[in-house]
Design a protein that fits this description.
Number of domains: 2
Largest sheet: 5 strands, mixed
Strand order of the largest sheet: 2-9-6-7-4
Shape: globular
Radius of gyration: 25 Å
Strand content: 5-15%
Oligomer: single chain
């Protein structure tokens, strides 16, 4: 048997399902070696094994190429932002506009909830998203009035600043309020452009996570004061506009869930899994 063929057999959904059915241990599930060794492995002729491996290798190579393009984008993004950094100086976020930390109205107060204003929480912000709209929950007119001190105009910068999934950055498409897990910048557009800040903070996500982990608590967090002190490289507005425009084009290619690389990668993975399972399904030979 070809080792590559066995690799694909043991990577299949069928083997995963079989393994899960025979795990041991309630608190810490683990493989059951005697049962795993009983798993029936299909053994077609070597030439058939070789052809199946060739087909599945092609799918794997294509997916790897698409992932490599994403890495190329990140490299190009960092290079562009480094170039922009050379033309300006670092400015604390708090000097670029108004910093706002959200809060949550009482969930038990039904009159605060309705369809008048977006209410954004971290779960509404997906990886790869640039603009957020249509959140899970919305405020009523009364709820919006209750939140009037933390309402954000459209095209503010929202950053998740607590928890394991912190550091996601997005621009709000509509006037909104957020919960307390999000710090936001209402930018002074005479100093900074929202699209430029979006790309800078997106590139800084790992840095934001590490800063949150240094907070000393059990939950990573960047509070309003510390968020306001984070320095951003701010070049002239014309450079910001040019850099953001270039990155917007690449961002759409890499992160657009309907037409960019994620859609292509998702489609290829579905095709791969479909063909893998079909190719690895054999009728048992008659005795």
């Amino acid at each position: 048997m070809k080792p590559e063929f066995l690799y694909y057999v043991l990577s299949s959904d069928q083997f995963f399902a079989y393994n899960m059915q025979h795990t041991k241990g309630a608190k810490m599930p683990r493989g059951n070696k005697p049962e795993i060794l009983k798993y029936p492995v299909p053994v077609p002729p070597l030439e058939v094994q070789g052809e199946i491996v060739r087909i599945l290798d092609n799918f794997s190579a294509l997916t790897a190429e698409l992932e490599a393009r994403r890495a190329q984008y990140e490299y190009y993004r960092d290079a562009l932002l480094d170039g922009a950094r050379q033309e300006g100086s670092e400015v604390p976020i708090g000097e670029l506009g108004q910093v706002v930390t959200g809060r949550t109205p009482k969930s038990s107060e039904a009159s605060f909830w309705g369809k008048e204003m977006d209410f954004i929480t971290p779960s509404d912000i997906k990886n790869g998203m640039k603009e957020v709209s249509s959140p899970t929950r919305m405020l009523s007119k009364r709820g919006a009035e209750n939140m009037n001190k933390v309402i954000l105009p459209e095209r503010s910068i929202l950053v998740t600043c607590i928890g394991a999934d912190m550091g996601k950055t997005v621009i709000n498409a509509n006037e909104c309020a957020t919960n307390q897990q999000i710090n936001s910048l209402v930018p002074d557009c005479s100093k900074v452009l929202p699209d430029y800040v979006f790309h800078v903070l997106t590139a800084m996500r790992d840095q934001l996570r590490k800063q949150g982990e240094r907070s000393g608590g059990t939950m990573p967090i960047i509070n309003k004061t510390d968020f306001s002190k984070i320095p951003l490289p701010i070049p002239p507005l014309e450079t910001q506009k040019r850099t953001a425009g270039q990155l917007d084009k690449f961002d759409a290619l890499v992160n657009d869930l309907t037409s960019g690389l994620p859609a292509e990668i998702s489609a290829r993975r579905k095709q791969y899994e479909y063909y893998r399972d079909r190719l690895l399904t054999f009728e048992e030979a008659a005795a």
